[in-house]
């Protein structure tokens, strides 16, 4: 049995579809959003109530661990060890083993905790997700034909969440991935100016990238309902990218090696999600 946490999210929901397609026995753990997926057993977990974790892990051989809050992952790792789970596939962050920034350090702490349990592990370290253009910028693209950021001309090798999910499905169901960490990127490192050009081509109207200073961008995020701490985190990451302090422009071949195909391009992503951006 495979337990998928974060099952109602973008990565988790696509992973469930892949596992069902492969005929794998799978259980989906959800917390806030309900889930209705054919062929999937569901359970509810609450990381603030540790007593809900053990029942979810009953009979589980492999755990796919993904949470919006890294602090939630420590009790799940400990519960998995106590439940006799054999393997964990953990979604970490790009360059977690060398990142000096707080998010990378937090993910690295979880990686080390998993390694200390003695369970078989695989770490997936995806770069920034193409789908962030939908969740963080989609409203502005639809309504203003523009998107706003403070990342400047930094290049980032963003990855499509669907590729992350498909890699996870392979790792969970095929041999050869034990105790390995995979940095996952898209096939190209692009700037926001290039992204605007691609969006314009696909949507059939001019889309502008409007560069903001750090303070204006942070305040814009907060005004849109983004929590202040997360807005500050995004501001800091953008500053580090502008200053060349990250490795977010690195392109890896792990998606191609695992899936046997090239990663999804930003052009293909825009074509697939054009209606979401108000396209044809």
TrEMBL record:
CDD domains: TMR_SDR_a. Residues 2-239 form the NmrA-like domain. InterPro entries: Ergot_Alk_Oxidoreductase (IPR051604), NAD(P)-bd_dom_sf (IPR036291), NmrA-like (IPR008030). It comes from the Bacteria. It holds the Pfam family NmrA. This is Uncharacterized conserved protein YbjT, contains NAD(P)-binding and DUF2867 domains.
């Amino acid at each position: 049995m495979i337990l998928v946490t974060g099952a109602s999210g973008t990565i988790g929901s696509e992973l469930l579809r892949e596992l069902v397609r492969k005929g794998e026995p799978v259980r989906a753990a959800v917390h806030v959003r309900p889930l209705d997926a054919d062929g999937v057993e569901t359970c509810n977990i609450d990381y603030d109530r540790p007593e809900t974790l053990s029942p979810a892990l009953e009979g589980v051989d492999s755990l796919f661990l993904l949470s919006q809050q890294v602090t939630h992952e420590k009790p799940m790792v400990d519960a998995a060890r106590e439940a006799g789970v054999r393997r964990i596939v953990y979604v970490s962050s790009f360059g977690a083993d060398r990142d000096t920034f707080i998010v990378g350090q937090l993910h690295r702490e979880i990686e080390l905790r998993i390694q200390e349990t003695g369970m078989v592990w695989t770490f997936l370290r995806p770069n920034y997700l193409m789908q962030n253009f939908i969740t963080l910028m989609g409203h502005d693209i639809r309504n203003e034909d523009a998107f706003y950021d403070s990342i400047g001309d930094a290049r980032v090798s963003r990855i499509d969440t669907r590729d992350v999910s498909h890699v996870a499905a392979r790792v969970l169901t095929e041999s050869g991935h034990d105790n390995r960490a995979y940095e996952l990127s898209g096939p190209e490192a692009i700037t926001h100016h290039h992204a605007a050009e691609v969006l314009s081509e696909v949507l059939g109207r001019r889309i502008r990238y409007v560069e903001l200073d750090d303070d204006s961008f942070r305040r814009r995020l907060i005004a849109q309902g983004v929590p202040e701490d997360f807005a500050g985190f995004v501001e800091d990451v953008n500053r580090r990218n502008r200053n060349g302090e990250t490795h977010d422009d690195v392109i890896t071949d792990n998606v191609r090696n695992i899936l046997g195909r090239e990663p999804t391009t930003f052009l293909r992503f825009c074509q697939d999600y054009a209606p979401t951006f108000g396209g044809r």
